[in-house]
Amino acid sequence: MSPAADPQYGWLLGRVAGIPVYIGRSWPIIAVVVVMTFGPQLAGALPGGAGYAVAAAYALLLLVSVLVHEAGHALAARSTGSEVSRIVANLWGGHTVFGSGQRRPGTAALIAIAGPAGNLLLAGVGWLLLQVDLPAVPALLAWALAFSNVLVAVFNLLPGLPLDGGFVVEAVVWKVTGDRWLAMVVAGWLGRVVTVLAVVYLLAEPLLSGGRPSLVTIVWVALIGAFLWQGATQAIRAGTARRAVARVRVGQVLRPVVVVPGSASAATALEGFARLPGAQRAVLVDPMGTPVGFLDLAALSAVPVDQLPVVPATAVLVRPPSGWVVQADPGDDASLVVSALAGHVEGENVKEAVLVCDSLGQLIGTVSLADVEAALR
Asked: What is the mean pLDDT of the chain?
């Protein structure tokens, strides 16, 4: 099923293979910056407002470049079985939001490379157009299409997170070491190195040419540098935290769960806690034994004692969000469980607890964020 459109992400432009494509509400800012930067430069050579019109056309070409780049990521991910929630173009370029799915180093690298590959394809289109005898303005736009997309592809392939090249490095280190989270930390540190080198180069290059960087250049380099440094730092922190989680076994943080039949009363649910010391949650199951949701213990405790036998357990049922049931065995590391607790998809609510079933499909307990945090202390 295709993801539903949600206006909070911006203006819905359309869909690619069922994936919603948005223009974020911050994107017009970069469009205005492009027009005001290149418009005056072109105004001297083009009469009237033609210079600004060409600059606006260039801004639209940049938008197309971003969307093709992100569509490359999205389609590659979809081809490997990963869920894709949306594509968004915004002030900082764009991003593709992936859902749950088990990835391997090879598929992770493929998804990362697909974005820059889309830019190189657009650069090829621009180059082919330049082989035709075009009028001056179309030729200028074709050159801009080719040059900017080569630049975007090369920049994104620099070997450090959060750039695509960083995800390739992460995939390679992951393949060699077998430790995905160590690979993330390594790629994050390389991202910091790449950020420093890029900032130094972009500011020093005008000085080496006998000039000095403009105020606009300094501001943009500072913003891009801060964005890259923040992304690299987040990768280091996330990888370090995930390595710690991987040392925790599911059995260490697993608590027993009271299983309540769908036809049971509130009294039966409470009796289940008396028979199962240590249980903190009760799950309601349908006649086939499929989990339906957790019971609201506060609401259950508030039921008058004389009403417990006649109030159905379904009256205090809380239907949890998707991803609340996780398959894991007690000896597995807690990474998958923590991913479910944190929410697989950007914007998905963090869960207080998830229900765990083993490889045979048996309900074996619950894991809460609080218990995981306690195990990491």
From this structure: 91
Structural domain boundaries, residue 7 = 1-157
Domain boundary pick from 157, 189, 216: 157
pTM for the whole structure: 0.80
Both 230 and 255 in one domain: the answer is no
Q: Using 50, 70 and 90 to split pLDDT, how confident is the model at 1? A: low
- List binding-site positions for Zn(2+): 69, 73, 164
Q: Are residues 195 and 307 in the same domain?
A: no
For residue 347, name the pLDDT band (cuts at 50, 70, 90). Answer: very low
In this structure, are 78 and 166 located in the same domain? no
Examine the pLDDT at 346 and tell me if it is beyond 60.
no
Q: Tally the domains of the chain.
A: 3
Phi/psi region, residue 178 (left: phi>0; alpha: psi -120 to 50; beta: rest), is left
Regarding whether 138 and 109 lie in a shared domain, the answer is yes
At which residue do the structure tokens 């049922």 appear?
A: 317
Least confident range of 116-130, 202-216, 313-327 = 202-216
Kindly give the pairing relationship between strand 11-16 and strand 317-318. unpaired
- 323 and 296 in a single domain? The answer is yes
Active site residues: 70
Q: Decide if 121 contacts 55 (C-beta within 8 A).
A: no
